[in-house]
């Protein structure tokens, strides 16, 4: 392998990703170089003429080739950031996304306005623990995180430790384990559930195909988890407690109606960066 400096290595990574039709190839190439060299963005500029060690160069191009197959960047790096916290991720766990910060913000706002200062929270389908940890650390909530997948649960536990969080992990199936929780005992229940229609999963972008199907598949109409959570878990909320969901595109009207029909009021939705109604919250009467 020929010798290269940082700038040359970065440009070569950009070329590899560009040829593979990676949309944000410049940003992602920078992420890979930062990860391998341990540089931040400023160092990429100030140390651009530094020679890259052959072993690191080889490793860098290995990662770039992996990304060229459309394996998610987050899995390649083994980590991703959510609300300012780092989370370990990999095959078998859903990747934290910026869109999920929309439902986090609805929850944070609700908890900050609780008159009794109680912030007992339940995160269903918790995955990597992104929402759970962020609510515990930022909103000072007392959070229990429920996850069924053994692989995702292991990431959840690891991320709780990584962030020195007091979140309590719980392995369970949200369609069944509601019987193990007391009624009227939570101030907030939040979930980013699987919400893709089963028939639509095969048509999702290549990167999403790497993510666990059980974290994506919301049933034939995409609403299986919303229906089950509203039906089985609403009783776990105290009066005045809130139920919040992340939403798929065009799901706000249906989920809002479900909430109204099941004794919730003050329904509020929130838009993501693409102007899609990405989150909803309702208050239990």
Key terms:
single chain; 285 residues; alpha/beta; seven-stranded mixed beta sheet; 11 helices; 9 strands
Structural overview:
It is a single chain. The protein is of the alpha/beta class and 285 residues long. The chain is 39% helix and 19% strand. The protein has eleven helices and nine strands. A seven-stranded mixed β-sheet has the order 5-4-3-6-7-9-8, sandwiched between helices. A two-stranded antiparallel sheet has the order 1-2. A hairpin with a 5-residue loop joins strand 8 and strand 9. The longest helix is centred in the N-terminal third of the chain and has 15 residues, at 54-68. It is elongated, with a radius of gyration of 21 Å. The mean pLDDT is 95.
Short description:
With 285 residues, the protein is α/β, with parallel strands linked by helices. The protein has helices at residues 6-19, 25-37, 41-46, 54-68, 73-77, 100-112, 130-138, 150-162, 206-209, 224-233, 252-261; strands at residues 79-82, 85-88, 120-124, 142-147, 168-171, 186-191, 237-246, 264-271, 277-284. Strands 5-4-3-6-7-9-8 form a 7-stranded mixed sheet, with helices on both faces. A two-stranded antiparallel sheet has the order 1-2.
């Amino acid at each position: 392998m020929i010798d290269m400096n940082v700038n040359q290595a970065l440009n070569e990574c950009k070329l590899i990703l560009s040829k593979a039709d990676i949309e944000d190839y410049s940003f992602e190439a920078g992420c890979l170089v930062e990860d391998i060299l341990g540089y931040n963005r400023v160092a990429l500029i100030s140390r651009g003429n530094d020679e890259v060690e052959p072993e690191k160069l080889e490793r860098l191009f290995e990662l770039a080739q992996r990304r060229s197959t459309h394996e998610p960047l987050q899995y390649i790096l083994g980590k991703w950031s959510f609300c300012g916290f780092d989370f370990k991720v990999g095959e078998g766990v859903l990747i934290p996304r910026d869109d999920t910060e929309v439902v986090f913000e609805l929850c944070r706002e609700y908890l900050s306005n609780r008159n009794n200062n109680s912030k007992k929270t339940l995160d269903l389908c918790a995955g990597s623990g992104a929402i759970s940890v962020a609510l515990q650390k930022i909103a000072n909530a007392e959070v229990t995180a429920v996850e069924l997948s053994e692989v995702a649960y292991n990431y959840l536990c690891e991320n709780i430790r990584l962030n020195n969080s007091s979140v309590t992990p719980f392995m369970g199936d949200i369609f069944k384990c509601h019987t193990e929780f007391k009624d009227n005992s939570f101030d907030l229940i939040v979930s980013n559930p699987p919400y893709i229609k089963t028939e639509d999963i095969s048509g999702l972008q290549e990167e999403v195909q790497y993510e666990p199907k059980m974290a994506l598949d919301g049933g034939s109409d995409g609403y299986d988890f919303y229906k089950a959570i509203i039906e089985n878990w609403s009783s776990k909320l105290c009066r005045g407690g809130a139920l919040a969901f992340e939403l798929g595109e065009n799901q706000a009207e249906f989920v809002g109606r479900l909430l109204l029909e099941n004794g919730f009021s003050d329904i509020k939705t929130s838009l993501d960066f693409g102007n899609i109604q990405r989150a909803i919250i309702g208050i239990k009467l």
